[in-house]
Automatic annotation (TrEMBL):
Belongs to the peptidase C40 family. It comes from Enterococcus quebecensis. PROSITE patterns: NLPC_P60. GO terms for biological process: proteolysis. Residues 1-136 form the NlpC/P60 domain. Keywords: Hydrolase, Protease, Thiol protease. InterPro entries: NLP_P60_dom, Papain-like_cys_pep_sf, Phage_lysin. This is NlpC/P60 domain-containing protein. GO terms for molecular function: cysteine-type peptidase activity.
Length: 220
């Protein structure tokens, strides 16, 4: 059965390796927002190989057959967003990508000149309007089911007081020993092929620090 983790992994493995282009959008070195979503859906088995690479308008046309509408509040990991009105979203008028969580997305975008993970805030998601969809027949794996090469939302961060915490995608856990930190980083590197994101905040009012603390309030 098709997995949303394969969709996300298609994007993650190309971060920093491809550029954004609406003219040269068929890969392997450059894509635009909609072509990247199409290639990821084909890779994951949601669309058959040989499917024509469409745009945001043809993605809208998959509603009912592949895409099941959900509210913005319900959006979760693996869901697809399409910004711009139906019938008027083509070209620079629309945008699309994949949710990593309700407030994080991964997408090929002009602002980053390639694939990047960003907040849904600050205009990154595009619109209005923004429509959210769940992939029919998708399997959604929990962090404990994640296999090598698949990405979960994890990071190490230092609070302004100097305490080090590990965010596992759900909660934050205090890291009290350097060996624990090393093991976590080694496991992440082996599973994902890159270093775990690490943040050092000195300002408790820093926007990203406040968002992370709000997402994972149950510090242990």
């Amino acid at each position: 059965m098709a997995s949303v983790e394969t969709v996300i992994n298609w994007f993650s493995t190309r971060q920093g390796k491809v550029t954004y282009s609406m003219n040269s959008r068929l890969g392997p070195n450059s894509y635009d927002c909609s072509s990247s979503v199409y290639f990821a859906l084909i890779e994951a088995g949601f669309l058959p190989k040989g499917t024509r690479i469409g745009n945001t308008e043809t993605l809208y046309n998959l509603e009912g057959s592949l895409l099941q509408p959900v509210s913005r509040k319900e959006a979760q990991r693996g869901d697809i967003f399409i910004s711009g009105g139906k019938g008027t979203s083509s070209g620079a008028n629309g945008h699309t990508g994949v949710f990593l969580s309700n407030n994080r997305i991964i997408h090929c975008n002009y602002g980053s000149n390639g694939i990047s993970e960003t907040s849904t805030e600050g205009g990154w998601i595009g619109g209005p309007p923004t429509n959210c969809f769940r992939l029919k027949g998708a399997t959604i794996e929990t962090p404990s089911q994640t296999q090598k090469g698949e990405i979960t939302m994890q990071c190490i961060y230092t609070r302004p007081q100097g305490e080090i915490f590990y965010f596992n995608g759900v909660d934050t856990v205090h890291i009290g020993h350097p060996d624990t930190l090393k093991v976590l980083k080694d496991i992440y590197r082996d599973n994902n092929g890159k270093e775990m994101p690490t943040y050092n905040w000195t300002n408790p009012a820093a926007p990203w620090f406040k968002r992370l603390e709000a997402v994972a309030p149950n510090r242990k």
